[in-house]
Amino acid sequence: MKTTFAFALAFVASFLSFSSQAQQTQLPPLVSTSGLGEVKVQPDQVVFMTGVEIREKTLEDARRVADQRTAALLSYLKKNGVEDKHVQTAYLSLQPVYTGEFGQTTPQFYLATRSISITLNKPDKFDELMAGLYKAGANRVDGINYQSSQLKKHQEEARKRAVQDAKQKAVALASELGAKVGRPYQINEAVNNLPIGPAMYKTAMREQAMDAGGTTLALGEIIITSSVQVSFLLE
Fold first, then answer.
1. What's the CA gap between 94 and 114, in Å, rounded?
2. Residue/partner pairs of 21-29 with CB below 8 Å, 24 or more apart
3. Per DSSP, which regions of 148-221 are E strands?
4. For 86-107, how does the pLDDT look when each residue is reduced to its tens digit (9 = 90+)?
5. What distance in Å separates the CA atoms of residue 132 and residue 138, rounded to the nearest whole number?
6. Helices (H), 27-150
7. Closest by alpha carbon to 75, among 64, 62, 87, 63?
8. How far apart, in Å, are the Cα atoms of 89 and each of 24, 51, 74, 83?
9. Taking Cα atoms as reference points, which of 118, 117, 124, 95 lies closest to residue 108?
10. Which residues lie across from 95 on neighbouring strands?
11. What number is the average pLDDT over the span 221-226?
12. Residue 21: its pLDDT value, please?
């Protein structure tokens, strides 16, 4: 009985394998290409981190001063029209610092660090906002990124261009062999696992120091990309 059952399983497995191979060999004539679409736009959002770094003799003093200055920064941002949803605590740290001989048990001071992430929808206000933050107690700035509030629209346009690029390549390849491209058979879009989503950002220009009295922010442009792989039937 067991032998018969094992034989039946083996037969089913063989049949499924044969069917799969048969399906693979029965694919219609195809031409497969990849396409890349790009959309270049000037960013209309700036994301940066600012905060405070405090050194005090005691842990309590470091925490208290850092909290006070951070509260002053948050108050300044709110008074100057930055919405709460565009302000987020990004980093917290409070630690002892030892600078003496190895094995020292008493820290020389305590270091408190607080950083907040800010999304600014008016890049032309960056210098003014930063000047106010410095006066309010900020003594560090960490990084800057550029974004577009119209990301979805630009993603759709990049995807459209990627599909067109793939089709143009397919037509060129098929024509070299005397064939014509028919309807699409299969299409896949490559997914980019960046925090910002499937589009890829590249900063064309970074923050630069310019003449006194002028702007210190060079927005440059960002590139939103889409990548697809398409198979077309050949006629």
1. 9
2. 28/185, 28/233, 28/234, 29/179, 29/233, 29/234
3. 181-189
4. 999 999 999 999 887 777 778 8
5. 9
6. 59-79, 126-136
7. 87
8. 54, 9, 10, 14
9. 95
10. 111
11. 90
12. 53
- Give pLDDT tens digits for 34-70: 999 999 998 999 999 999 999 999 999 999 999 999 9
The tokens for 100 are 């003496």
Q: What is each CA distance from 181 to 165, 172, 186, in whole angstroms?
A: 14, 9, 13
CA–CA distance, 203 with 144 (Å, rounded to integer): 10
Using CA atoms, how far apart are residues 140 and 145, in angstroms rounded to an integer?
16
User: Cβ(86)–Cβ(121) under 8 Å?
Assistant: yes
| Residue length of the chain | 235
Distances (CA, A) of 38 to 44, 46, 222: 18, 21, 10
Of residues 33, 10, 9, the one with CA closest to residue 167: 33
CA distance 165 to 158: 10
Cβ neighbors of 186 (< 8 A, separation 6 or more) are 230, 231
Interval 17-33: pLDDT, tens: 545 554 556 879 999 99
Tell how strand 181-189 and strand 222-234 pair up.
Answer: antiparallel
Are the beta carbons of 67 and 107 closer than 8 angstroms?
A: no
Q: Which of 129, 115, 126, 121 is nearest to 77 (CA)?
A: 129
State how far the Cα of 103 lies from the Cα of 116, in Å rounded to an integer.
34
Q: What is the pTM of this model?
A: 0.66
